[in-house]
Inverse folding.
């Protein structure tokens, strides 16, 4: 199978991987709950953060995680074992959300055709946008403690 014919991961796989990674990082036992949104809708969170890794090799594509600032802060505090009163800076947030997509992307890469390589995460304070050269193949919208979280998979058009 060539890289252009390799299928994207199924939404069920994206959910299973995201749940597993989320529990290992957030660790409070609270489930990620489905959050239905209209197909093609923009990610709906205040002050969004986005982070992406690309996979190249036996499978080509990218995995993106988007979350709001409040959720990024909560995740960062849990990952770094910080108290609510300890100050966070953008570097802390970037490290935490980058590690989230790295773990989700690495887990998805392991179930895709290979061999493949995973890039370092790219992190932005803002929402992710993709050009016409990429198609969204899977999009998972969930909520955790009322905070939206999106994991999407894009493949070359």
């Amino acid at each position: 199978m060539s890289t252009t014919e390799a299928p994207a991961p199924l939404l069920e796989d994206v959910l299973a991987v995201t749940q597993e990674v989320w529990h290992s990082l957030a660790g409070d036992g609270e489930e990620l709950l489905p959050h239905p949104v209209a197909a093609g809708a923009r990610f709906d969170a205040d002050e969004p953060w986005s982070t992406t890794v690309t996979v190249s090799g036996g499978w080509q594509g990218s995995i993106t995680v988007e979350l709001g600032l409040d959720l990024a802060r909560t995740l960062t505090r849990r990952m770094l074992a910080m108290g609510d009163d300890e100050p966070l800076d953008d570097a802390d947030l970037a490290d935490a959300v980058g590690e989230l997509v790295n773990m989700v992307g690495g887990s998805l890469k392991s179930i895709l055709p290979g061999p493949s390589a995973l890039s370092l995460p790219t992190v932005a304070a803002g929402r992710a946008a993709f050009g016409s050269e990429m198609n969204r193949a899977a999009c998972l919208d969930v909520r955790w403690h009322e905070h939206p979280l999106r994991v999407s998979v894009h493949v070359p058009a």
